[in-house]
User: Which sequence fits this backbone?
């Protein structure tokens, strides 16, 4: 009997984990795609981009870094917004 | 509370905030700036450091407006708005202060004299003292709020205090530093955003969108906090 109930609990837990994993996978996939796309972009115009990124005291590198941080923060805020919207919908 | 027409649930201004901020970063780093003595490329901080202060002032204004709205009808939601806008404005003020400290360390400070001497000169600057007074007044606002248990009393007293704090904000960050000699731009012989200087026109087309973008981002974060608090209130008093 004990064994049986434990199994059930495990089953429920695993199901929840699966949902979580799905979510994590989604996010990982998203970021991989973003990274891949930048890599592709760099390969596409290999020389010219390399030149732009290294010209003008390499200021473009700073722009890229700051943009990445900004976009990361904005994505975080968007996710928070979505979560709160969901909570609001549930409470109504 | 749940009406979908409220600006908090609209998304167009959030998209505008994101676009304006991306524009700010790109144009802010790559756009043309006047070659100024001493400042050099650090003049680009105008799009970041100064915007923090502008956004702070706008948010404090929203906060005081909501405080007055609370006092007119004693609706608790306006007290929640007022509080969260004040907190976000304080955060922006701290960011403005710390970015200003970094900027000053590399422009005002004399590399030949000791750190302590530099600190003595810079810390005496009226603009810095004025900003510190303004922020401390608002810190007191938070302490005052949290020290009162009764919800209605808390809301009333802090709304009234908010109005007084707002009344000291502008004299201490605008008027006081202007009548005293200061290193900070914005004085008669040291203007910020000079109209006569035609190159600063190029900076204006980045600066004004930057102010709007940073303000909208701050408002966005504030509305998230407001929405969470409203949800909590709803759960407590269904």
Assistant:
């Amino acid at each position: 009997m004990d064994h049986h109930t434990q199994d059930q609990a495990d089953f429920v837990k695993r199901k929840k984990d699966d949902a979580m994993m799905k979510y994590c996978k989604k996010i990982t996939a998203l970021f991989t795609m973003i990274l891949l796309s930048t890599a592709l972009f760099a390969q596409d115009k290999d020389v010219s981009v390399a030149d732009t990124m290294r010209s003008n005291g390499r200021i473009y590198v700073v722009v890229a870094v700051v943009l990445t941080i900004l976009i990361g923060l904005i994505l975080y805020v968007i996710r928070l917004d979505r979560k709160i919207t969901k909570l609001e919908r549930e409470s109504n | 509370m749940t009406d979908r027409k409220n600006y908090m649930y609209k998304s167009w201004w959030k998209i505008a905030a994101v676009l304006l901020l991306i524009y700010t970063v790109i144009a802010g780093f790559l756009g043309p700036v006047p070659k100024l003595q001493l400042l050099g490329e650090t003049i680009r901080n105008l799009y970041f450091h100064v915007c923090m202060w502008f956004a702070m002032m706008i948010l404090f204004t929203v906060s005081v407006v909501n405080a007055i709205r609370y006092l007119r009808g004693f609706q608790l939601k306006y007290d929640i708005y007022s509080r969260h806008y004040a907190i976000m404005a304080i955060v922006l003020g701290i960011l403005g202060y710390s970015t200003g400290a970094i900027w000053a360390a590399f422009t005002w400070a004399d590399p030949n004299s000791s750190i302590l001497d530099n600190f003595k000169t810079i810390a005496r600057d009226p603009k810095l003292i004025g900003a510190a007074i303004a922020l401390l007044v608002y810190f007191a606002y938070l302490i005052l709020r949290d020290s009162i248990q009764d919800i209605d009393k808390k809301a009333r007293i802090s709304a009234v205090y908010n109005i007084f704090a707002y009344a000291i904000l502008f004299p201490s960050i605008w008027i006081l530093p202007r009548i005293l000699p200061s290193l900070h731009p914005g004085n008669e012989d040291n203007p910020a955003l000079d109209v006569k200087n035609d190159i600063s026109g190029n900076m204006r087309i980045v600066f004004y969108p930057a102010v709007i973008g940073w303000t909208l981002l701050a408002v966005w974060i504030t509305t998230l906090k407001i929405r969470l608090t409203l949800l909590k209130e709803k759960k407590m008093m269904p």
User: Anything to note?
Assistant: Chain B touches chain A at residues 2, 9, 14, 18, 21-22, 25-26, 29-30, 217, 220-221, 224, 227-228, 231, 234-235 (CB under 8 Å).
